[in-house]
């Protein structure tokens, strides 16, 4: 079966067409600047990238252009849309309504809409993509795969906040966690790589990118994760503050004469390693600046690595042990220095890094030494493949 995977943002749309038998991507692409002017970057497997500059007023127009690119005589990879057996949609927030992926029905769409308050920037965009595909491919079955679903196995002691319980009852304010599709995929690969029994395994997955989170995976199930009601909680990230004393919000608002909305914008878009360093949210820029003697850039990187190590330590306690630690996403897969820096705090676990093996980028490998008591893995994430697998399983 050929599965079209759609990841719809507010002004962008990422896609892959995946052959479920070989699990290879037949084509990948990105629609940018939807609603502004529009650009489609389309790359067929084994071919050159094709850039199509064409107005995309709506997401439906963007998806129409994607389908035309996939069936184009010159750079297409299928002869007709009849070859697409299913569509898998990434949906950011499923709240407590969706504990697993599900075939999309009118009732499911209504349920996703009811979660809009929990992810106002993401869920409406995801729904736009779903409705556009339904309009253009009304007879093709579709599946929603939720970022939050993997974390619905967390126990109440892990997801409840220390606020009046009525707010959980009335508004479902609790920790939900994100990057679930990535955490699930990487944990499964780590279990296979290390040769563990899934039902007797303890994995910590570190999804480290511009957005970053850490998850404790016990016997294949998420039991705790660093992101919360929103992706703002947890680790310091590229531009996000991560967890802070909540009183800081009021303090800054009063001192700077700013509204809560303005302070939240600062915490989401102007904080993290960008705010600490004053240089960039990109760790490559920080490394270059630190090498050139910029102490704040060096400090920002140190603070980030320290926070990751702290979460790993707390999740080892939560699971009463750990078999493997897996690094993934842009930073986790590609930055040997961050991996080494985080691992340097974990000697108490009997972890030792093989620095020659660790000198890799974007390659699946065990980078700890043979005698390391806990294995350290680098595993490139593949959320699109995970979505395709979920879609095929349900269809």
Protein described:
- This protein is an alpha/beta fold and 395 residues long.
- It folds into 2 domains: 2-146, ATPase, nucleotide binding domain (Nucleotidyltransferase, domain 5), CATH 3.30.420; 198-378, ATPase, nucleotide binding domain (Nucleotidyltransferase, domain 5).
- It has 14 helices and 14 strands.
- It has helices spanning 59-70, 106-114, 123-136, 156-159, 165-171, 180-194, 247-256, 260-269, 272-277, 283-291, 295-319, 329-334, 336-343, 383-394, and strands spanning 2-8, 13-19, 24-32, 39-44, 50-52, 84-91, 102-103, 142-146, 202-208, 212-218, 221-225, 324-328, 365-366, 375-378.
- Strands 5-4-3-2-1-6-8-7 form an 8-stranded mixed sheet, sandwiched between helices.
- A hairpin with a 4-residue loop joins strand 2 and strand 3 (24-32).
- Helix 7 (247-256) crosses helix 8 (260-269) and helix 10 (283-291) crosses helix 11.
- The protein is globular and about 55 Å long.
- The mean pLDDT is 94.
């Amino acid at each position: 079966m050929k599965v079209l995977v759609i990841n719809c943002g507010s002004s962008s749309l990422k896609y892959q067409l995946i052959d479920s038998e070989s699990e290879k991507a037949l084509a990948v692409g990105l629609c940018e600047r939807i609603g502004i002017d529009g650009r489609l970057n389309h790359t067929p497997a084994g071919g050159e990238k094709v850039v199509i500059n064409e107005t995309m007023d709506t997401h439906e127009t963007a998806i129409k252009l994607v389908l035309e690119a996939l069936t184009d005589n010159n750079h297409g990879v299928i002869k007709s849309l009849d070859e697409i057996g299913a569509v898998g949609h990434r949906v950011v927030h499923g709240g407590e309504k969706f504990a697993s992926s599900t075939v999309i029905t009118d009732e499911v769409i209504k349920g996703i809409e009811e979660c809009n308050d929990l992810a106002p920037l993401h869920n409406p965009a995801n729904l736009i993509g779903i409705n556009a595909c339904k309009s253009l491919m009304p007879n093709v079955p579709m599946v929603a795969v939720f970022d939050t679903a993997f974390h619905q196995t967390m126990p109440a002691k892990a997801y409840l906040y220390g606020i009046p319980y009525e707010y959980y009852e009335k508004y479902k304010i609790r920790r939900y966690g994100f990057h679930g599709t990535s955490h699930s995929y990487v944990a499964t690969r780590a279990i296979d790589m290390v040769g563990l029994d899934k039902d007797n395994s303890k994995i910590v997955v570190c999804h480290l990118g511009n957005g970053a989170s850490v998850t404790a995976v016990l016997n294949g199930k998420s039991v705790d994760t660093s992101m919360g009601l929103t992706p703002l909680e947890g680790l310091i990230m590229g531009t996000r503050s991560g967890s802070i004393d909540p009183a800081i919000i009021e303090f800054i608002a009063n001192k700077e004469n700013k509204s809560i909305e303005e302070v939240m914008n600062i915490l989401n878009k102007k904080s993290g390693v960008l705010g600490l360093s004053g240089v960039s949210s990109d760790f490559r820029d920080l490394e270059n600046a630190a090498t050139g003697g910029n102490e704040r850039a060096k400090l920002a990187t140190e603070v980030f690595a320290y926070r990751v190590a702290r979460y790993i330590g707390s999740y080892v306690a939560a699971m009463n042990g750990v078999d493997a630690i897996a690094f993934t996403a842009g930073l986790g897969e590609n930055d040997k220095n961050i991996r080494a820096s985080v691992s340097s705090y974990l000697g108490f676990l009997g972890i030792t890094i093989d620095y020659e093996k660790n000198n890799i980028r974007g390659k699946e490998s065990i980078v700890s030494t043979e005698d390391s008591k806990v294995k350290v893995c680098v595993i490139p994430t593949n959320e699109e493949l995970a979505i395709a697998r979920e879609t095929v399983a349900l269809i």
